Amino acid sequence: MILVDSSVWIDFFSGNDSAEADLLDSILGNRAVAIGDLILTEVLQGFRHEKDYKLAKSLLEELTIYELLGKNMAIKNADNFRKLRKKGITIRKTADVIIASYCIEHNLPLLFSDKDFQPFVKHLGLQNAAQ
């Protein structure tokens, strides 16, 4: 099972050429793919046309959908943000902290193209699903 970040889903649905979107395309239907509730929100809110929204929603609802928060994860998120900040790294988006921390805690590889996840790979053990 891998979790796929919105950065990859957006490229996938937009038809943007990226190694991560190509990898997602090749594994859909062949490997277990999951999405987080926060990622689901980020992806679906970007669709302008109802037809595209409905198609994407239908596809994404078929995946395993993880609930990324809760009290214990909220504290873990803050801990991970603070660990990185102590190393001089400030993560710009709280959503990235939530997604990365969930994957670390649940030993889920994350497929992403957003560079903000790299500190989590380097310093906190996040598994990059593209490697």
Describe the structure concisely:
By secondary structure, the protein is of the alpha/beta class. 56% of the residues lie in helices and 9% in strands.
What's the number of helices?
Answer: 7
Terminal CA distance: 14 Å
Query: Share of helix among residues?
Result: 55-70%
CATH architecture: 3-Layer(aba) Sandwich
Q: Whole-number average pLDDT?
A: 97
By CATH's scheme, which homologous superfamily applies?
Answer: 5'-nuclease
Structural class of the helices, strands and pairings? alpha/beta
Total of domains:
1
Give helix and strand order, one letter per element, not per position: EHHEHHEHHEH
Instruction: Compute the number of strand runs.
Output: 4
Can you put this structure into words, describing what you see?
With 131 residues, the chain is α/β, with parallel strands linked by helices. The chain has one domain (2-124): Rossmann fold, CATH 3.40.50. 56% of the residues lie in helices and 9% in strands. The protein contains 7 helices and 4 strands. A 4-stranded parallel beta sheet has the order 3-2-1-4. Helix 1 packs across helix 2 (19-27) and helix 5 (71-86) crosses helix 6. The longest helix is centred in the middle third of the chain and has 16 residues, at 71-86. It starts with a strand and ends in a 7-residue tail after the last helix.
Describe this protein with a few key phrases.
single chain, 131 residues, alpha/beta, Rossmann fold, 4-stranded parallel beta sheet, 7 helices, 4 strands, globular
